[in-house]
Specification:
globular
Length: 286
């Protein structure tokens, strides 16, 4: 956070690269890594907060027709703010992120049997739940019980590098540290989960030939069988239908998360379509 504060306090003629180099010059390499990691994670949270504000501002403007007090049409106002190139992509990205956050929360609450609010003690509960934080916690919830997770998270917070001790609340790197350690231990023990036959094992199912309906049937089938009973090879195949080659190096939990999000997005899309069909009739009745 110190480097970010320093950068924002500088004049516009000072480059970010120069500020960064000046701040890191006297640090050992490990400390540099921690500082860079902090910048990247905090910047993601900042970007998400700004996106949420922009989405809320646009919704408020539309709901109250504020543009009409000065401009002849909404199109004229959109051109003024460069809506299509600047504002719309931010809003779309935020709303996709919001759906992903909802899917992560659903996983956490289902796996741990508690509400999101009660998933962490108040003394280290984050002030804002970022998409990244929720994604990591949802992965952790598939690895261990709620009680075990809290114990591991407390220990991880105690072992933070010095530069990350500026806050007493949980941060994403605390959760990531726990997950990394659990993965290492799992590899050492050589644990294998039970396998289950899956439609995805059919070699004839090439990703480019799989329709959206078939994808959803495969995801739903695997979910019904239970994710834990489906081997990681098949989960990676299914996840590759959503995220491509990245799935082949993803963990079981990451694959499941992407599949859960895909199922949730499909459910949301069907709800939107149903509402879209019903709205004209509702308007007529009004």
């Amino acid at each position: 956070m110190e480097i970010m504060r320093s950068y924002f306090a500088q004049t516009s003629c000072t480059s970010a690269r120069q500020v960064l180099q000046d701040a890191l010059r006297e640090m050992p390499e490990l400390a540099q890594l921690e500082a860079i990691t902090e910048i990247l994670t905090q910047s993601a949270v900042l970007d998400e907060n700004v996106s949420e504000l922009i989405d809320a501002a646009w919704s408020y403007l539309c709901e109250n027709d504020l543009w009409s007090f000065k401009y002849e049409s909404m199109d004229q106002y959109r051109q003024l703010i460069n809506y299509r190139e600047m504002v719309k992509p931010i809003i779309q990205r935020f709303r996709r992120s919001d759906r992903a956050k909802f899917a992560s929360v659903s996983l956490i609450e289902r796996n741990w049997g508690v509400s999101l609010k009660n998933s962490l003690p108040q003394e280290f509960r984050p002030r804002a739940w970022s998409k990244h934080m929720l994604c990591l916690l949802s992965q952790l919830s598939t690895h261990c019980s709620h009680e075990d997770a809290l114990r591991r998270l407390r220990k991880s917070m105690e072992e933070r590098p010095r530069r990350s001790r500026h806050t007493s609340t949980l941060i994403a790197s605390d959760v990531q540290r726990v997950l990394d350690r659990m993965r290492v231990r799992t590899k050492r023990k050589g644990k294998h989960r039970p396998l289950a036959a899956s439609p995805a094992s059919d070699a004839s199912l090439q990703p480019s030939l799989v329709t959206q309906d078939v994808k959803l049937e495969l995801y739903t089938w695997s979910q019904m069988v239970s994710w834990s009973s489906t081997c990681v090879h098949h989960l990676r195949y299914l996840a590759s239908l959503e995220i491509g080659e990245a799935a082949h190096v993803s963990t079981r939990e990451e694959c499941v998360l992407h599949l859960e999000i895909a199922l949730f997005n499909n459910c949301s899309l069907r709800i939107d379509e149903t509402l879209g069909q019903a709205l004209p009739y509702l308007a007529l009745e009004g």
